[in-house]
Every structure is written in structure tokens, then in C-alpha cells.
Description:
single chain; 443 residues; alpha/beta; 8-stranded mixed β-barrel; 6-stranded mixed sheet; elongated
Amino acid sequence: MKETKDILTGLDRYEEFLKKLDLEIKKLDDYRIAIIYTDIKHFKYINDTLGYQRGDMLLKEFVTQVTKDNSHMLCAARVVSDNIVLAVRLENNISNDNFREFIHQSNREMEDKFREEYLAARLKFCTGISFIEKNDRSLDPATAVSNANLARKMAKEMKDDCCVVFDRRMVEGIKKEVEITSSLSKAIANGELKVYYQPKMETGSLRMEGAEALIRWQKPDGRFIYPDEFIPFIERSGQIVELDYFVYREVFKFIAGRMRENKPIVPISVNVSREHLSKMEILPYVRSLFEEYRIQPNLIEFELTESIYIENTEKALQLIEGLHEMGTKVSMDDFGSGYSSLNLLSRLPIDIIKLDKVFLQDEEAENRLKENDKIIISCIIDMARKLSITSLCEGVETPEQSDYLSQIGCELQQGYYFSRPIPESDFEIFIDQGCPVGDLVIA
């Protein structure tokens, strides 16, 4: 006879849980069923640092805590590893929001208890909840669990709130993600992905001194999919490396083509995703591009976001040193976006810092800089200058902002006041004409 209980936790095995849940759904009456799907975030870290025996103890104690008030519990199972699912009876006078808040608070209490007991500061519980209503008697139990699991995955991506209620729009989001990730390689092959360039202006002359390469996805019907719509999906799937490499090759090809024709060119910066730090294959790939296209290393700049430096400083340092050995410049993008650690500037050999556009955004003041922001920007630029680091400010949208940056010595500026990201053909015109700001603005 097949075992129906999980040996470690004593809970039902998942197959048995689904059978019981199916029966409970079919007999639903004047109440609802809540599916609670929970796991322990960083559980692998606990196993690796404290040992599997302690990890098992934590899991068993966790199960004890979540099932101790079982007066309304219908069934519970260990799905896999540290993933636990429960089905509880929920009276109609308890709202979805109140129930979510109850589970959220329970999670916080368990976290406080286990962090102290297991000396595990990173321990966190992530929970997804789905509700089964009276008119859902024909609902497949596996679908109900899948919905709660999808909400759990959403919760796992959040920094603060780790308890999420399933929403049907999540399913549409998953469909969109699958559509995008499955079509990326084909889109690259079909020429749907294109590199656009946003000029960087030298503050004194207001002439173009460089540009940033940015990706745009234009479907065959002419519709654009903008980066904030597809980059998060591409990052989660790991395809961001493929996308980065595509951009690098296009930029190298563009620069090499202009050099062959003896046309002027400005340095181009490209973005580096955090995925590159795990394998460090980016260094041999970039080296191979330099060997293939024979362009000057000072014409390429690599931008790493501030959060990458913070998350893995040692790996970031290795990457910077490797890029510098090839003769390229490295910048810290989004500086001041919320993760700032000023001592990084003295520790990391950064060539350029790009101040995050948040310093220039003030809707209430109609894009006029607030005094506090002026002080912060001025101090950062002064500090960068003393460390021999070039400063660039993003998000410049008005002449007043540009003038102020000039007054405090910001060396480079970038933003819609000068130009939006533009196609390669338009960018070439600007380079050829050496356009000043007045001629550079693109609607």
C-alpha cells in the first residue's frame, strides 16, 4: 500500500492532499476555503550554514506552528522540500483582506521566533493565498493550489510584503512572460530588437561627448514593447545575458563600421546585468569582440547599476579590474537610487558615476530642484571630483536643471532636454553634424 503521509513532517503527501481537497470543494456550502501555500525563504542557506539536521528541525517546528490551530484546517501537505500547503475553512464574515493580514502577522511572529532560535537573520516566510468560493465547486483542486503557489512566487520577489493574495491578472502576467521569453531569440533573429542611442552632453559646450546604448523591441506590426515591459521577464529567465551580448555586438559593429569609413565616433556605453557576475563569462566575450572588430577600447564604457555593486562587491571588483585591463571605462549607474554606500566610491575603481534621475524629479515644483536635492547633488559631484571620478546626471529635462548642473561642476548631462533615445540612423546624423543642444532635441 502506498504511503500517504510525509515521513519528516507527518503531513499528507501532495497526492493525498489533492484528493481530500477535491472532496472538500465538492461539498462547499455557506463558507469558503482558503488555500495557503508557504515556504521558507533562504531555506537552502539555513541547510548550508546550520546543517541539514537543523534544517529538518526548523521545517518540523514550522509545520507545528502553522498547523497548531487546526479547528478550521481541512487538510495540509508537504509539497516538496520546504513548501507547505494548507486548506482551511473560512467563514464568510471574514474578508479576504483581514485574512491576508492575519496570515501576514502570523508570518512575522514566526519569523521573530525562528530568527532568534536559529540565529538566522535572513529567515523569512513567503505565502500565497487563493480563495475558493461556493460557486467554485467544479474547480480542479490542483488549479486552486497552483493559484496560491503563483501568489507565493510573487510574494517571494517582494522586499517587504511576503504575503500575497492570488489575482486572476497574475495568470495574464504569466502568459505574457511566457510569450516574451519564448519569442526573444526569434525576435533577435528577425531584426525586431534594435539598439537606440541616447546622447550624453558635455556641460560646458553642450555638445555630444558620448551616448548610451539602449534596447527597443519593435514588433512586425510596428508596435513597440518597451524595456520595462520585457526586461524583468528576460532577467528572471536568464536570457538577459543573450540580450546584453546582442547589444554589445551591435555597438561594436556600429563603431567599427564608422571607423572603416573614417567617420567621427563618440564613446558608447552599454549596460551590464547582474546575471554576468555569477559566471563572469562576459570578460572573454568582450575580449573576443575587441579582437574581432579592432576598435579602440576607450570607445566602449560599461555601466553597472549601484545595486550590483552593493549585492556582490567582490565580484563587481573582479569584473571592473578585468574590463580596465582591456582599456575600457566603467561607470556606476543609478547612483543614489536607494542603495547608496558612499564608501564604495573609494573602494571601487570607478571612472564615472551617473546620478540617478530621482534627484531631478519634483512634480510639485514643476521640475524645479528642491534645496535639499541641490545640496545632495552638489556634495556628490564635489566628492567625485576630488576622487578623480567623472560625474554625469541623468534625467535632465529643463534648461534650469541643466544650468544648475553647469554651475556646480557636473561634467556630463543626459536626458530628454537634449534627446530621447533615437535610432541608429538619426544618431549618425547628430554625430556627423556635431549638433549642439538646440539642434539635438527630438520630439
